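Table 4 source record.
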Amino acid sequence: MNWKDIIVSKKNNSFKYKDAQLFDKVFDEVLKYHSPGIAPVKDGSGWYHIDVKGNEVYKERYNRVFGYYFNRASVIKGKNWFHINELGKRLYDANYVWTGNYQEKVCSVRDFTNQYFHIDLEGKPIYESKYRFVGDFKDGFACVRLVSGFYKHINLKGSFLNDKEFLDLGVFHKNYAIAKDENGWYHIDKIGNELYENRYAMIEPFYNGFAVVDTVDGVKQIINEEGVIELTI
């Protein structure tokens, strides 16, 4: 049985496999299975994780648990957030106000001074800086919000990708990212240069060479990577 074929029931309280209930257990709430075949569940004893046979992975109970990414799951105990491994063992001593999910072997966290940064698989910060906000890494880069309020891109070593700052920013998708300045949204390359001069009220990342945009007048269009309008929709 492949855990990827297990689905959550419509009532979000049990699991199904090939249109049949997976095992004879019903919970208060469940979340879907993640690698390595472990799912978060809640019953009268609290939140914990189970395997594909419905057996608890560990004895501990939490206020909330989430799915596994890189064999690590975020859990909440009281007011403290941290990560456990697939055996239920705590990975590091630090506590946080919030922890994300591991992406590209690093994870975004928020400390008790409400500052954000990224930690590695052992729970160690991957750089010394702290930010007003950080996003998940994608393809080796993440968006961070500086104390000044501006956004920049960083790499997995915590270094800035370029010297450009933006009012808002998205992750790179097929070498381009969405960015915002005082005139609106547009697309940039990894150097931080604009792909075209126009600005929009809303834009999406490029999908196979084209992106949906909304003009400041509320017109929805499709543009190519040179900013040329291909279609009004």
